[in-house]
Design brief:
169 residues; 8 strands; disordered N terminus; 30% helix; single chain; 7 helices; 26% strand; alpha/beta
């Protein structure tokens, strides 16, 4: 019986393994918003989760340099001001990285990008919307579409050596 139960349990993602290696406590969460045709914001509201605590991960390319990528994480209900982010980072300009090429850039497909794996594997700098400082717990992708981890905001920022910036006026 124990073997059957083990087979039914969903396999950990590499990002969950990274958290385990660093002894960081987290909760696994799965979201079915894509299969239901909802937005992530609608799913958060339906589950009673504060949308300010669920972060989206945006990969940006700076100065049109194919080797200068940065990652910005912000709550799903907010937008990103690219000019402000460029100014905050001291870059001439930033733009969204090519979605079709994300797997080659970050190792993840669109919708699965996560600051955990991108920082640990690729070493990209990670920036967080300064408004998340008020959140004790936050959720980010676990490296698989529809799968998230919920953990202490400070644990995530410390793990990826993140910095806080303004991302929207």
């Amino acid at each position: 019986m124990a073997k059957k139960a083990k087979k039914n349990k969903e396999k950990k993602t590499n990002d969950e393994r990274i958290l385990d290696q660093h002894h960081i406590e987290y909760e696994e969460a799965s979201f079915e918003w894509l299969t239901r045709g909802q937005s992530a914001l609608e799913e958060a509201n339906a589950q009673g989760v504060d949308p300010k605590s669920i972060l989206k991960t945006i990969v940006l390319q700076a100065n049109k340099d194919p080797k200068d990528y940065v990652v910005v994480c912000l709550p799903i209900e907010y937008e990103i001001d690219l000019k402000l982010v460029a100014q905050e980072l001291g870059k001439k300009q930033v733009h969204l990285a090519d979605n079709k090429n994300l797997i080659n850039i970050t190792g993840y497909i669109h919708g699965a990008n996560t600051p955990i794996g991108i920082n640990v594997r690729k070493g990209f700098p990670i920036y967080f919307d300064e408004r998340i400082k008020d959140q004790t717990m936050i959720s980010v992708s676990a490296g698989k579409v529809g799968r998230s981890v919920r953990l202490k905001q400070t644990d995530l920022v410390d793990l990826v050596k993140g910095k806080y910036i303004k991302v929207e006026k």
